[in-house]
């Protein structure tokens, strides 16, 4: 008997960094001067005075902050392709559902997800740097959108790199130039008051592994709360196997609890996403 699915829409957002710079060079035409008579006035072009280059003031970063962030970066798992299996529960105004998620991940390129209930696949998602594809097997439809489409659905801005960092247990929205290091009785914290976000990161007192990240958006009334727990050695690095993600705004709360069951480095994995001609396509 076919399982009763309640299909869901997971909000993952992206911030597209547009860094475009153009240097326009206008070479001057060089003309040879021809003197016909000695009493003739010769016009000599005046060379413009080059402006004195401005030397930027070095940005000082707290040494304790630099040391702690370097430790976090050094603990990042190194891979080209990775396979993960996790149990996931999503709670939101539209959904309260538990399911199994299989992830195939090609670093810096794409993240493929397959979500199923009692072994029956209900949805498949392919996220790349510039697009998102959703295969809704319950409603026989495909959603094919640019990655900017995800940004329109929520005010929380996450780039593709931010999504990868969240999966890896790395930090997000931490402006190191504005960060302050605090050593407390039970933990260590970094507080960063950036231009857009106010970020508070808690670290375990002994291991210095991050245990939580709380981000407040100064522009919109929304927060991101991420918790990392159950660190285990995976591929030679300490890796959080239990995650909680909560995003809140004025009207709603989205919460996801994920427990990673397995993690394995792979090679030449397939990322199948064949479009069924009978499915409805939404662009």
Structure description:
This protein has 283 residues and is mainly beta. The protein has one domain: Lipoprotein localisation LolA/LolB/LppX (outer membrane lipoprotein receptor (LolB), chain A). 10% of the residues lie in helices and 43% in strands. It contains three helices and 14 strands. The protein has helices at residues 63-74, 148-153, 160-168; strands spanning 81-92, 95-106, 110-117, 120-128, 131-136, 141-146, 179-183, 187-193, 197-204, 210-217, 223-234, 237-248, 253-265, 280-282. A 14-stranded mixed β-sheet has the order 7-8-9-10-11-12-13-1-2-3-4-5-6-14. Strand 3 and strand 4 (120-128) form a beta hairpin. It is globular and about 60 Å long. The two termini are 33 Å apart.
Concise overview:
With 283 residues, the chain is mainly beta. Helix content is 10%, strand content 43%.
CATH-defined topology: outer membrane lipoprotein receptor (LolB), chain A
What portion of the residues fall into strands of 2 or more residues?
A: 35-45%
Rg measurement, Å: 26 Å
Oligomer: single chain
Low-confidence stretches: 1-42
Number of strands: 14
Q: What characteristic shape results from the CA principal axes?
A: globular
N- and C-termini, Cα separation: 33 Å
Number of helices: 3
Tell me what the CATH architecture is. Clam
Return the string of H and E elements: HEEEEEEHHEEEEEEEE
**Strand arrangement across the biggest beta sheet:** 7-8-9-10-11-12-13-1-2-3-4-5-6-14
Structural class: mainly beta
CATH hierarchy, class: Mainly Beta
Helix content: under 10%
Q: What's the main sheet like? A: 14 strands, mixed
- How many domains? The number is 1
Mean pLDDT: 78
Looking at CATH, the homologous superfamily is: Lipoprotein localisation LolA/LolB/LppX
């Amino acid at each position: 008997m076919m399982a009763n699915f309640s299909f869901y829409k997971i909000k993952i957002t992206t911030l597209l960094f547009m860094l475009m710079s153009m240097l326009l060079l206008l070479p001057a035409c060089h003309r040879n001067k021809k003197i016909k008579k000695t009493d003739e006035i010769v016009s000599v072009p005046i060379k413009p005075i080059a402006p004195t280059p401005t030397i930027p003031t070095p940005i000082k970063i707290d040494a304790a902050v630099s040391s702690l962030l370097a430790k976090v970066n050094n603990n990042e798992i190194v891979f080209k392709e990775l396979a993960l299996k996790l149990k996931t529960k999503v709670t939101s105004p539209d959904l309260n559902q538990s399911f199994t998620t299989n992830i195939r991940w090609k670093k810096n390129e794409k993240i493929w997800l397959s979500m199923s209930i009692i072994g029956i696949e209900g949805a498949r998602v392919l996220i790349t740097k510039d697009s998102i594809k959703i295969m809704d097997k319950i409603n026989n439809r495909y959603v094919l959108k640019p990655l900017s489409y995800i940004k329109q659905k929520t005010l929380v801005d996450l780039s593709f790199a931010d999504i990868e960092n969240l999966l890896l247990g790395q930090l997000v929205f931490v402006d190191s130039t504005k960060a302050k290091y605090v050593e407390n009785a039970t933990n260590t914290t970094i507080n960063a008051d950036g231009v857009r976000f106010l970020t508070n990161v808690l670290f375990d007192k002994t291991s210095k592994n991050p245990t939580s990240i709380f981000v407040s958006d100064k522009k919109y009334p929304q927060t991101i709360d991420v918790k990392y727990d159950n660190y285990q050695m995976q591929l030679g690095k300490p890796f959080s196997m239990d995650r909680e993600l909560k995003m809140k705004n004025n009207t709603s709360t989205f919460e996801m609890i994920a427990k990673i069951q397995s993690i394995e480095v792979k090679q030449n994995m397939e990322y199948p996403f064949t479009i069924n001609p009978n499915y409805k396509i939404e662009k």
